[in-house]
Amino acid sequence: MAQSTSYLESQVLTASPPRLHLMLIEGAMRFGRKAEQELAAGNEGHANEAMVRAIEVVAEMLAGVRHSDSEVNQKLADLYQFLFHTLTSAFVNTDSKKLADVLRILEFERETWKLACERAMTSEKPTPEKTKAMSPPAPHLLTGPVTEGLSIEA
Asked: 122 — phi, psi (to 5°)?
């Protein structure tokens, strides 16, 4: 278990902001699917636990886009607020249809963010012109712990 935790920690610490957001979407989907399976099996208690986790992840997604007043962020905030409300209603009413609706939207959102991550990666690849303009890293950057100076903020 400790090995998977340190792997996840490494993934989070080295991920770009779009990749972090994609990880949140995938987490919400994972918990939502778990809730769906548990509801189908008649395990309402386990389904409720998974739905609460999905609600918490969607709340984090919402918090992540509220830092800016841009039009795109506002539209994402509206979408995530809708997902939060619908998931909460699914939880309170044990409504598998609403849960399925949220999962369909999250699936679409995941595909959108996958494309955003791919585009971000290709735009970051160095071209010959960029490589010539780049200077070698300072010697102090090549020593010390890997996590030193890392930030997951955008």
From this structure: -70, -30
